C-alpha cells in the first residue's frame, strides 16, 4: 500500500515536470513562431479528379499571427515528374510542407521536375470565404486544363498592416479528366 502511494507521487511529479519542460513539436521539429502579421499555409484539401468548367471548393489550412485580410488566392496547374532519388523520407527531412487530413508532403525542387505549367490564375471576393480562423475556402472553376497536369500549386496574397504579402506555396496532386 505504501509503495503504491509513493509510485503515485513520483508519477505526478514526472507528469508536472514534463508539461513544463517540453515545447510543442511538429513532426519536423519545433514550430517556428510567426512574425507579426505573417500567415503561413500548412495544407490543402481538394478533390483529386478535376474537370474543366466545373466549380470546386479548395480548402486551405493556415496559421497566422492574428486576423488575416486575404486579397486573393492564386493557383497554377503543373505537370510534375518525380525524380528517381526522391523518397518520403527526403520530404520529411526538409523538402516539402506539412499537409493535414488527406494531403501529402509537396515535393521540393530536388524531389520533382516541372515539365509543363499553366499561367497563374487568381480568385478574389466573392469566391473566398473563411470557414474558421484557420480554414479558408476558395471557389475555382478550372479553365484551359491540359490532360498531363498532375499537380496544383496554391498561394495566398494578403495584407499585413496594409502591405501586400504572399504566403508560402502548397501543392496537391490532381488528375485532369478530359472528355
Describe the structure.
With 179 residues, this protein is an alpha+beta fold. It has 2 helices and 14 strands, in the order αββββββαββββββββ. It has one domain: Immunoglobulin-like, CATH 2.60.40. A hairpin with a 2-residue loop joins strand 11 and strand 12. The protein starts with a helix and ends with a strand. The relative contact order is 0.25.
What's the total helix number? 2
**Order of helices and strands, N to C?**
HEEEEEEHEEEEEEEE
Helix proportion = 10-25%
According to DSSP, the number of beta strands is 14
**First-residue to last-residue Cα separation:** 75 Å
Radius of gyration: 21 Å
Q: Tell me the structural class.
A: alpha+beta
CATH architecture assignment name? Sandwich
Total domain modules: 1
Quaternary organization: single chain
The CATH topology turns out to be Immunoglobulin-like
What is the CATH first-level class name? Mainly Beta
Low-confidence stretches: 15-29, 84-110
Mean pLDDT, as a whole number? Answer: 77
Largest sheet: 6 strands, antiparallel
Overall geometry: extended
Q: Which band does the percent of strand residues land in? A: 35-45%
Task: Provide a quick synopsis of the model.
With 179 residues, this protein is of the alpha+beta class. The chain is built from 2 helices and 14 strands; from the N terminus they run αββββββαββββββββ. The termini are far apart.
Amino acid at each position: 500500500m505504501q509503495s503504491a502511494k509513493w509510485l503515485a507521487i513520483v508519477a505526478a511529479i514526472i507528469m508536472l515536470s514534463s508539461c513544463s519542460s517540453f515545447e510543442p513539436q511538429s513532426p519536423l521539429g519545433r514550430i517556428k513562431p510567426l512574425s507579426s502579421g505573417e500567415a503561413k499555409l500548412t495544407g490543402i484539401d481538394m478533390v483529386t479528379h478535376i474537370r474543366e468548367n466545373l466549380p470546386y471548393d479548395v480548402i486551405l489550412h493556415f496559421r497566422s499571427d492574428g486576423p488575416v485580410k486575404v486579397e486573393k488566392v492564386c493557383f497554377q496547374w503543373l505537370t510534375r515528374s518525380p525524380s528517381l532519388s526522391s523518397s518520403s523520407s527526403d520530404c520529411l527531412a526538409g523538402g516539402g510542407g506539412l499537409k493535414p487530413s488527406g494531403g501529402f508532403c509537396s515535393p521540393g525542387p530536388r524531389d520533382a521536375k516541372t515539365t509543363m505549367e499553366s499561367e497563374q490564375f487568381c480568385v478574389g471576393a466573392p469566391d473566398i470565404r473563411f470557414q474558421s480562423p484557420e480554414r479558408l475556402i476558395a471557389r475555382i472553376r478550372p479553365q484551359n486544363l491540359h490532360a498531363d497536369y498532375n499537380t496544383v500549386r496554391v498561394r495566398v496574397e494578403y495584407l499585413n498592416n496594409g502591405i501586400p504579402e504572399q504566403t508560402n506555396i502548397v501543392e496537391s496532386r490532381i488528375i485532369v479528366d478530359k472528355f
